[in-house]
Design goal:
Helix content: over 70%
Structural class: mainly alpha
Distance between the termini: 51 Å
Radius of gyration: 15 Å
Number of strands: 0
Shape: flat
Largest sheet: none
Length: 86
């Protein structure tokens, strides 16, 4: 249970740090925020996960990560199409 709370705290800190830097830079972009959130959650889940046994909350977290990776692919495809259309 300690790892679960540590992971939530780390992710919340990461998101607040990203939002803070985005506000300071005056560039509130949802795509950049999403990509940085995805990087943070991937790193945190990898650090918290135990390879011998996977707790239930990490299994559901991996579903969130999988949907995030799919959405990341859509963002990248849109950016590529935007570049090619110029």
């Amino acid at each position: 249970m300690m790892k679960k709370h540590l992971a939530i705290s780390a992710l919340a800190g990461w998101v607040l740090l990203v939002i803070g830097f985005m506000v300071l830079a005056r560039t509130l972009d949802l795509e950049i925020f999403f990509v940085l959130w995805l990087i943070g959650i991937l790193i945190i889940v990898e650090l918290v996960s135990d390879h011998a046994a996977t707790p239930r909350y990490l299994r559901s977290q991996r579903l969130v990560i999988a949907s995030g990776v799919i959405l990341f692919g859509v963002i990248v495809a849109r950016k590529i199409l935007e570049i090619l259309s110029k």
